[in-house]
Model the fold of this input.
Amino acid sequence: MVLARRTELVRLTEAAVAVALSVLLGTVRLLELPNGGSIALATLPLLAFAIARGVGPGVAAGACAGAAHALSGGTIVHPIQLGLDYGLAYAALGAAGLACGRGTERAALAPAIILAMALHLTANVVSGMVFFAPAAGGSAFAYSLAYNATTVIPELLLSLWLVPPLVRALARANPADSWRRGLLPPPRSTPRAPRTMVAATSIDTVRPRAPQLREALPLRTVSLTSLARPAPFGGPTPSARLRRRC
Done:
């Protein structure tokens, strides 16, 4: 019970840190695009957290991060657009948690990262088709896809490069959970050396094995009869009394 509560506390702490880092990195824009979009690294901590801790915690952290992004200066024109751009789009990053049991190598994590970013792009494209169609002038799908792909594809390439080191750091921070999820190999249990029992072949003497000890330590034979003590006050021993009665 205590271990389960500690694991939940660690996950909540990591989720809170991932959400805070996502909002912070979202404000740092690496490149401003002519169409109004920008390239940032807001998805990196959410992808790493989802891979390290699973789909459920990743979806919950993504939804919280989307709400935080919306409250910190997001573009909101409709409640449905809010749910698509900031709720569903960021929650879809939790699909990266499907990379369970495949290790932390870049090639093993790439399919799950691509799937999560594809779902993230799909939610943004659907939102653009519905609510930004007047600005398209022609095909709303082509306009929305081109607008969102110019930001999501560079972020995907950066994620493929930067997410695996973050996953390794999270895996080492909580190795017990990472062993269960297959991100780290299980610890090797070192077999114990078998214990050797040395039995004495004689009650009277115990012979050392090494010849050096045999020469250094003289063997002494101790008889069991010599250990018998006379009775106190010079009386006969119990064995002598028994003989007399017989």
In short: The CA atoms of residues 81 and 131 lie 7 Å apart. The first strand starts at residue 31 and ends at 32.
